[in-house]
């Protein structure tokens, strides 16, 4: 008898009339979009890995990414600037979770506060990236130009800079669109759109996108700066 | 299934506590990654460097798990939803294995059958001299 009730409960989930995933349609589709986006980023990073594995030499990231804003020229501070960028993105992800959580509590002021903090974090990250790109460009690095030597002192190909600028650029574009989405969410919150709807599910969807941007950075950061 | 649905809405205090706990874990994992990165700068042994890189990759996957599981709330969703997201992503295991193997194999084959190319990639460049040469030719 107990087995009958145990199997009867899950079939009710697929019995129609409600989402078998217990999530709203838009949120499910956001998950599927993010999955497809994960494959796009995955394809970029795996392509980078394949080329790196097929090369006899590769530049040492600690020799390339060693600069810091306002530091004197020739300073050797590897990993320092990029770890600040990483923490900015982690903290902005935390404020986004707090905004989503506040939305569930229907706490408009907390949503506004945390969304503003998230937007500031996103803009701070983009500013850091803009500085880094500008600095690398001033050193002669760009698509098709690689001034850095391989770790063993041999001539490096332009694969390194091509992949770096393409993948961090694609990620930076995602951060930029995430900031735009968050600003739209902020305006909609301030206009009481979600209060009138009776739920803040839109913030959850924007939150999923923002966390995905943070997730991708975890991989980009590891593949380009650490390994 | 009602118990699963109820588990999705845990009370206010524990949810916020969980957010800060995960923040702490993510920060800690990042700091360990950075420490390993700094340690690796002082290591010359190739196999030891490779194992440190393996450790960094494991920490990276742990960070991804915490972001997707807790920040994106996937761990608290229904099992159906988790499976429809995670199972397709398992293709990555094969993609990464196949493509990195292929890249490595291409390198080995080219080094064996194209000695000219291999010799070219073994020439050391002295950067300061190169810059001087370019300047000299420019004048």
Tell me what you see in this structure:
The complex is a heterodimer of chains A (227) and B (139). Chain A is an all-alpha fold and 227 residues long. Chain A has a single domain (24-226), classed as Four Helix Bundle (Hemerythrin (Met), subunit A) (Up-down Bundle). Chain A has eight helices and no strands. The longest helix of chain A is centred in the C-terminal third of the chain and has 32 residues, at 159-190. The N and C termini of chain A lie far apart (57 Å). The model of chain A is unreliable at 1-8 (pLDDT under 50). Chain B has 139 residues and is mainly α. Chain B folds into two domains: 1-78; 90-139, no CATH class. Helices cover 82% and strands 0% of the residues of chain B. Chain B is built from seven helices and no strands. Chain B starts with a helix and ends with a helix. In chain B, 11% of the residues are buried. The chains are: A mainly alpha (227), B mainly alpha (139). At the A-B interface, helix 1, helix 2, helix 4 and helix 8 of A face helix 1, helix 2, helix 3, helix 4 and helix 5 of B.
Relevant terms:
heterodimer; A: 227 residues; mainly alpha; 8 helices; elongated; B: 139 residues; disordered N terminus
Short description:
The complex is a heterodimer of chains A (227) and B (139). Chain A is an all-alpha fold.
Class of secondary structure makeup of chain A: mainly alpha
Instruction: Please give the alpha-carbon distance between the first and last residues of chain B.
Output: 81 Å
Helices of chain A, by number, come to 8
End-to-end gap of chain A: 57 Å
Please, how many domains of chain A?
Answer: 1
Beta content of chain B comes to under 5%
**Percentage of helical residues of chain A?**
over 70%
- What gyration radius of chain B follows from the Cα positions, in whole Å? 24 Å
Largest inter-chain interface?
Answer: A-B, 55 and 56 residues
Q: How much helical structure, as a percent, in the residues of chain B? A: over 70%
Low-confidence sequence ranges of chain A: 1-8
Output the helix-strand order of chain A: HHHHHHHH
CATH superfamily of chain A: Cytochrome c oxidase, subunit III, four-helix bundle
Order of helices and strands of chain B: HHHHHHH
How would you characterize the largest beta sheet of chain B? none
Shape of chain B: elongated
Compute the average pLDDT of chain A: 91
Whole-number total of structural domains of chain B: 2
Q: How much strand content do the residues of chain A show? A: under 5%
Query: The biggest beta sheet of chain A, please?
Result: none
